[in-house]
Structure of Esterase:
Amino acid sequence: MNLHYRVEGEGKAIILIHGLFGSLDNLGLLARVLKNDYQVISVDLRNHGQSPRSEHFTYQELAQDVLAVADELNLASFAVIGHSMGGKVAMALSELAQSRLEQLIVMDIAPVAYQEHRHQNVFAGLREVAKHTVSKRSEAETYLAQHVVEPGVRQFLLKSFAKGDNGYDWRFNVEALIANYPTIMGWQPVTPFAGKTLFIKGQNSEYIQNEHRSAVANQFPNAKAHMVANTGHWLHAEKPDVVSRIILNFLQS
C-alpha cells in the first residue's frame, strides 16, 4: 500500500495523520506552522484522498502503511500527530515503531472502543449523493443536506468531493468505510508506549471522557493532557493558533 503523501520543510520529521472522511489537506493549517521548523509529512490514509483503495481497514494495517512512508523517506526517528481516527492510527503506530517514535500527539480521541454510532447520517448523505449524476458541488450539497443538517459538516465532506475522469465523486471509499465502521469505532489495546505523549481535548467534545483515563494511563503511561477551551472535536480548525502553540511547546519541551 503506497500512500499518497506530501513533504514540506526541513528538520526533525513530523508525520500528520487526518481523520475519517478527511485527507492530508485537513491538517494544512498545522502543517503551515510546523514546516517552518520541521520536515512535515502529511499523508492520505488508505481509502482516503489520493491513496489506494482496499477492503482491508484495520488500525494495524493503517499504521503499517504510515510506517512504510517513514521507511521510504529513511526516517530513523520521527514524531506523529493524529486527529480523531488518525489519532488511533498514530497510537497503533506507537506499537509498531516504539524505538523510532520520539513524540506522540493525539487530538481528541481516546484509545478505547466507542459504542455509539456517530456517522449514520453522514453515510446516508454520502449514499444519497452517489445515487445521482452530479455535475457540481452545489448539487451534491443539496442531496447531502437531506441527511446532514450541519453546514460545517457538509463543507468538510465536500472538500473531498472532486472531479475525476468519470465526473464528480468522493475521494474516500464510501462503501469500504461503511463496511469497516465497527473496526473504525473499535480498538485493540496496544503495548504500553513509554515515550512522550500528549492528548489534546476539545472542551466541548465527547470523544475524551473521564472514564477513559485508565485506558490512557495503561497504554500511554507518560501521557500528558491539554484541554482547549470552547472548542469541539475539530479543535485544530476552530482554534488553529492555540492548538499550534500547544503542539510546538510540547515538541520543543
Notes: Strands lie at 5-8, 13-17, 39-43, 78-83, 101-107, 161-164, 167-170, 196-202, 223-228. The chain has two domains: 5-114+186-252, 120-179.
